[in-house]
Amino acid sequence: MSSAAEQETVAKERVAPEAVVNGASHRTPGVPVWPGAPTPLGARFRTGPDGVAGTNFALWAGGAEAVELCLFDASGRETRARLTELTHEIWHGFVPGVMPGQRYGYRVHGRWDPWTGGRWNPAKLLLDPYARAVDGDFTLPPEVYGHVRDWPQQQVADTVRDDRDSAPYVPKGVVVHDDDDWADDRRPKTPWADSVIYEVHVKGFTRRHPGIPEELRGTYAGLAHPAAVEHLVKLGVTAVELLPVHQFAHEDHLLRRGLANYWGYNSIGYFAPHAGYASAGTRGEQVGEFKRMVRALHAAGVEVILDVVYNHTAEAGELGPTLSLKGIDNRGYYRLQPDARRYADYTGCGNTLHVVQPHVLRLITDSLRYWVTEMGVDGFRFDLAAALARSMHDVDMLSPFLAVIAQDPVLRRVKLIAEPWDVGSGGYQVGAFPPLWTEWNDRYRDAVRDFWRGALPDVREMGYRLSGSSDLYAWGGRRPYASVNFVTAHDGFTLRDLVSYERKHNEANGEGNRDGTNDNRAWNCGAEGETDDERIRALRRRQLRNLLTTLLLSTGVPMLVAGDEMGRTQGGNNNAYCQDNEIGWVDWELLEDPAWQALFDLTARLIALRHRHPVLRRRAFFSGRAHSADGLRDLAWFTTRGTEMTEQDWYAPAATLGMYLSGRDIPGRDERGAPITDDSFLTVLHAGDRPVNFVLPGPPWAERYEVVVDTSRDDQTDPPAVRHTAGEEVTVPARAVLLLRVVG
């Protein structure tokens, strides 16, 4: 067998110095291309010289030697025209007569030299990074790879250029005419402190909804349907956080197993709404459909936040397909290793965008501004945001990306949520992002899960998490709402599965149950999976009430996952990223079960309680100090004895915690300048497996208390009016939350 070095030499010799597609250039005489303009990037329909309608095409391709614009008619016949104008590394031209609906792509010429990072191959039709719509499905036959995918020596396969034409096998960009000024739209502009976020998959939320017409299920129009909007309004959430809706592609290993990327964290078009979620068509109609969805949600008072994936693309590593950026300027768009054949991978997905490059930073910020100004969205959750904050190698909170966002007049005004980690060295950055940013707080998730499964050694961690995580966020002017509190997310168990399974059950993913985390911090309440044991089923329902009540009474911004409020299950699958089926879709029949309807009712009641009481959604951290002569403080912690906790109590093993929130000492003023006052509340959380007696604190904290929530009760629709006197010893049932309002 030959050595790797000998195989690489053979591969180099096979590479032609210049690319020729099927032996011909395919340029079509007679296609007029006027000079046009280098800005804006992308394909923009407009009126050109002498009032002639057409489209201006502009593509950044810094190291390219030539760029061909490829136009496709309804039959798929291709017409090519060279873009001869080059301004500041942007190839551009105006083509008269090209109208909205026109499908197009690019072929970019340059040197094939993977050893220095050059992967130009004009045999491959490339998607415009600025395409506003995409028509067609991404499949991954060998022809869409810039290298010979099935080369016998895989260790050098990425160096062997594939000269087969990919155009018949890849989607095309679509010219879109956008003249919508959003004059009739009214953004809710919900303050951060008042927000309740609902994580939603466009398809999964609507696919099985009986109130949505069949032809609209799984689409943007389905999410805009009154039946879907009604659920959001009844629940009381203020924002939907949509799993990725940028155009995405499916990975080869999933397609080979007959699966697909359901979640969509594999972006390839940062300006295009994913065509698979459109009911109206994919020749630009998806753009209008998405806008109508946003308008419908805004009209209901619901903001739209997009989960965006700017850290990597669907082109994967050196053995991945050539779909767009890799063929436009591989070393200009991606972080490469010292061995330029290889990609720096801080994402676990094969590649990482080189965000410190000005043109890459421009691509991202242009995309963000487009979704705000032209598509109407209200904010973004950034997947693996630490990867975007890396300078050359390390995570840097003064990085170009964060600096640009901070000064941008559009982006600094929208909601910005970081997933504050990546998979690279030093990538865990919870609590480190600067002001303007909120963060997914996984320390909140872990503490709440551990408390309710009895795995915390003491209650110190719970104290911080319940009161806004001041240990993480009380710096630099940040506020309690910098913490996005969650117990579950799309990635991991659903809430019902969290109390029904201790081990992942991901066999349906076809990866031998190796995928997905093993650190679930779950407790199955005595049996793995579904059971007929009514005692266990009742305990699980109680644990669900405990988890939801804890989340919605905590200081910070709560985030729910669609379906958790009505007992959605994935059968123990904690990584359902490839389950575009009943495993991943919301089951609306659950609401026909009185037990799950009761859980929905409790969730809606807790959200309504949160909206009514500003003490539950503070805009400033607690001081813990007395603000009046009677010694009443804005926040106090109590033991079961009714005494304030000492330093020793915080370190002692305990399963019970009492938290007092004073409504008399809320910082800030209302819109008219008046002080903000509210009721005061005592929350008692008890995770022990036996009831405990709790002495209710007396003056100055309270004279009397009224029970508002008792999670030990199955029926939560109309709680009885139960009052207690300060100093009274009340029995807190095993594994329960009591919320008591001070009434005197």
**How are the strands of the largest sheet arranged?**
12-13-16-17-18-19-20-21
Unreliable segments (pLDDT under 50, ≥5 consecutive)?
A: 1-28
Q: How many whole angstroms does the radius of gyration measure? A: 28 Å
Strand content: 15-25%
Largest sheet: 8 strands, parallel, barrel
**Terminus-to-terminus distance:** 88 Å
Structural class of the secondary structure composition?
alpha/beta
Helix content: 10-25%
DSSP strand tally: 29
Question: Treating each run of at least 4 consecutive H or I residues as one helix, how many helices?
Answer: 17
Averaging pLDDT over every residue, what do you get?
93
Q: What best-fitting shape do the alpha-carbon axes yield?
A: elongated
Could you describe the 3D structure shown?
With 744 residues, the chain is α/β, with parallel strands linked by helices. The protein is 21% helix and 19% strand. It contains 17 helices and 29 strands. The strands form seven sheets. It has an eight-stranded parallel beta barrel. Strands 22-23-24-29-26-27 form a six-stranded antiparallel β-sheet, with helices on one face. A five-stranded antiparallel β-sheet has the order 4-3-7-11-10, with no helix packed on it. Helix 11 crosses helix 12 (460-466) and helix 15 (534-553) packs parallel to helix 16 (594-612). 51% of the residues are buried.
Give a brief description.
The protein is an alpha/beta fold. Helix 11 packs across helix 12 (460-466) and helix 15 packs parallel to helix 16. The radius of gyration is 28 Å and the shape is elongated.
